[in-house]
Design brief:
The chain is mainly alpha-helical and about 120 residues long. It has 5 helices and no strands. The longest helix has about 35 residues.
């Protein structure tokens, strides 16, 4: 039986490796810039929902959905938390779900611990 040859990618110092790192760096910069743009775009939306004492669950949840897309950006995360604090008295269950969605997507280790703790409580 023949052994399969391991496929290796470019190695550090190779031109292909350097090009790959450069491409990844540009992608990372674009993602960071997109998150910053999202924070600037959603700040007035979140403020308006809160300042107008919005009770429209669909509008609040739609905004939370959009914020979750950029939850890796610290400024967007602050907006998400601010909106969660506002929404919690209106709908604690939905707010808890959204916190879970955030953890599942952006902090999976914390999410796994939370799920384990909930399972232990039920026993």
């Amino acid at each position: 039986m023949k052994k399969k040859k391991a496929v290796t990618g470019p190695k550090k110092g190779d031109p292909e490796y350097d090009a790959l790192i450069e491409d990844l760096s540009e992608i990372a910069k674009s993602i960071i810039a997109l998150g910053e743009t999202a924070a600037k775009a959603y700040e007035p939306i979140v403020s308006d929902l809160i300042n107008s004492h919005c009770k429209d669950h669909m509008e609040i949840q739609r905004t939370m959905d959009y914020l979750l897309d950029f939850g890796g950006n610290p400024a967007v995360l602050q907006l998400f938390k601010k909106l969660c604090r506002y929404y919690f008295p209106l709908d604690p269950a939905a707010t808890s779900d959204y916190v879970g969605f955030y953890l599942e997507q952006w902090e999976p280790e914390k999410y796994k611990k939370m799920i384990k703790a909930q399972k232990r409580k039920k026993k």
